[in-house]
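Make up an example, fold above all:
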Amino acid sequence: MAGVLLTLLRPVLIIWLMVVCARWGLALWLFDRVDAQGAWGDLLLEGFRFDGVILGLIWFLPATLLPLAAMGHRSWMWGSLALRVYGTAWFGFLFFMEWSTPAFIEEYDNRPNYVFVEYLNYLREVGPTVFAQYPVRSVLIALLLPASIVAFWRWTKPPALAAKLNWWSALALSAILFCAFALAGRGTLTHRPANPALAATTQDGVVNQLPLSSGYTLMYALYLDRKSEEGGVLYGNLPTERVLEVVKSGTGADPSLYVGGEQQPTLRRQVPLVPNTAPQNLVIVLEESMGAEFVKRLGGEPVTPHLERLSHEGIWFDQLYATGTRSVRGIEAVIAGFPPTSAPSTVKLARSQQDFFTLAQFLKRQGYASTFYYGGESHFDNMRSWFMGNGFDAVVDEKDFPNNVFKGTWGVSDEAVLDLAHENFNKENAKPFFGLVFTSSNHAPFEFPDGAIELHDAPKGTVNNAVKYADHALGRFFEKAKKSKYWNNTIFLVVADHNSRVYGNSLIPIKRFHIPGLILGGRIQPQVISAQTSQIDLAPTLISLMGLTGEHPMIGRDMLNPTHAGGVGRAIMQFDKVQAYMEGKDVVVLRPDLPPEVMTYDASTGELSPGKANKPELVEKAVAHSLFAPMAYREAWHR
């Protein structure tokens, strides 16, 4: 029996020690954040709990079967070998996940989640990017991972079976080990098993994740994402009728304009505030990762002088907030007007690949032709499929550019993309057009043509330099556009898909969701909209500004309406599995398996603090909007 326990417990102990060392290494690396939350005790206790959870989940079945294998010498030989291979595979996986964690935290301020798996599908772009950003770590893991796996294999060599176990001994030991590991994997004696909410004891999301191992956070994210076709996890309960009442009321539209009935409850007829004297083309320039921290007018670095100048020539949004932290989330919000969920963006989900409402679909009924311009491979993040299935007529991507243009890891340069788009816009004569241009030069590893700009930083490959180059390309595009034949009858929207790296010691770092937004064109008069605005408000605003009348299911607001432009506004933000609903300084934070929390946001410091009032009406708004998006996806309302 001792040999059975030694064969099992040796790999379990090695894996446990590796995970513990990784956790405390991260805690020391993030010492200031852990110390600021006074979380050392919670880190120890919850870390012990969740070590038991991951080890229990991994080992309860092998632990149950191993004593049965010890009933014979031949079965022991094969059973102990299978357990050794099984343990080595898990060790390699968990070692790789923990070693990858610091870089992921630096990028996303989270332990690895479903984004980690999604990026593995795009190794052509992601591989060089990771190596360029973290060359030393990449080389180290390439050396340490195989060496550690070999060492684990050697350390876990099973002993020979001294004496076979009889039926009663094998069954008794099997039952004991099953109960011990299953209980550890459950993590609690309460009516529901442990989940990450038990470790959420502070106001800092990353500190809350430190007790968990990265292998666990990844597997839990994948478990939750099994529900993605239903829209992700839910943050509360409200009757469907009440959800629709709250959401429809939030648009500010007259109830008589809702014409979709039960089949499409948010389908409404939008009547423009601006008369349509002539068809207006639409051009949206979706800027990669251009957060407010790069715009001087929004309190950021002075690396976007062209955007700064243009901001005084059109409709400028002082408080525009992204809905998420991924490009597809920005595409979903800006082009489809769809609010965020904890699930992957609808750009990637099966039920939204056709007959899912987009601006292109709306404009097609008005006689428009729509084209998507991208400098990389358009199949990335499933963009081509989603665009072509939902109203776009053509996609222009990397293969459509001449060989002599600058090409980096993520595709051709912003200048090349905008130049080609401008040339095509100038050729459009037969019908009004919609052009969506998605830039990519401001994406790590920040590659752009030499000599294009005067560098802001040294060395060249920094985010500030990449943003300055992206701004240079944008300014160059508008210089040409203003001299073109399409300028006077085109409306342009310049907006970021999301902020740059989203991080902070808050449950949701709201300051890192603040992005620039600007509408301009030949007929646009300068205006500043100071109310809080969400990306989902942009599409209804553009429709109104273009003077178009038509039906759509979007729940965004027309920010040209003086009631909205002069009001407080609101924003909805998704940060991994945390969703926030903000009105003014009040923020409702929604997390899985925890009650809603009303907090106060200080825009000057970017800090969230516990709120002083419960505000049940605001909580209901937050919960209703969080429930609406998965309902709309599941029930096909957004069409």
User: Anything to note?
Assistant: The mean pLDDT is 91. Residues 240-634 form a domain with the Alkaline Phosphatase, subunit A fold (CATH 3.40.720.10). DSSP finds 20 helices and 20 strands in the chain. The chain has two domains: 2-226, 240-634.
